[in-house]
Fold this sequence. Notes:
By secondary structure, this protein is of the alpha/beta class. The protein contains 11 helices and 14 strands. The strands form 3 sheets. The protein has a 7-stranded mixed beta sheet, with helices on both faces. A 4-stranded mixed beta sheet has the order 5-7-9-10. A hairpin with a 4-residue loop joins strand 1 and strand 2 (8-13). The radius of gyration is 21 Å and the shape is globular. Residues 231-293 have low confidence and may be disordered.
Amino acid sequence: MEHASGKVLASLDNGVGLLTFNQPEKRNAMSVEMWDGLAAVLGAWADDPAVRAVVLTGAGDKAFVSGADISEFGARRDSAAAQREYDATTRRGRDALAAFQKPVIARIQGFCLGGGLGIAMQADLRVAAEGSSFGIPAARLGIVYGFDATRRLVSLVGQSRARLMLFTGERIDAAEALRIGLVDRVVPAGDLHASVEALAQGIAANAPLSVRAEKRLPAAIGCGRSDGLGLNTSRTVAGIGAFSDCPSNCANLRYVRRGTSPMRCSVISASHAKSCSSVMPGSLSLKSVQAGL
């Protein structure tokens, strides 16, 4: 599936969506059209139960995303009105990524700079190939890095490291990015695809309601919330495969997917869990996850 005149590619395989930023001749620099394409793909995948996890990557082996497509700046940002439209379009893409409730992995090879690093930091996990480089050249370009991206940078590497990257505009290599917490794993370039595929498939095989909740909880804790996001400890969530079709046709059960096969699973009352004959031995109970997550 193609978007943004072929500059954003989307495919789905065994529960994992692959979104590719496809402008290798410009090191996958993000055009306005590509931001719209990103929002469109994530919007389609958000409610698709066949999509259990998403991988973001750049075409070729030179860059994940090298930043904004500066060739558009003359036409897209030459007036206050044009700048507002540019900001609104890019915001739609960033908002779609921020609101996406399924796990997102950034598969990084080559340059990951500026706005490209901002996209990678919005992913839940970042896996980089050896030889990749990271940086924020905003100060060298006479601009200010965005608030949301700076906040994420600080949450990952701390204030002092964030200042060092922002003040100097210097690039760091993958080993340093791993050391300071900017990425989660670094692997040989030849192993990158297989490593990320295994990671994504492992996540996709897990219970989706549990994974969805676990995506929200660390962010809430990082923001200092102590209310547990309103999680109701009187409910239980069963893991995928823990239930067959409920003979009682309990209204709280819902369909979810494992691979391409729909299965009946999910949120039931503790009393029903105790009595229902369709509960299988060894079913997973996660009492801290709410039905509405």
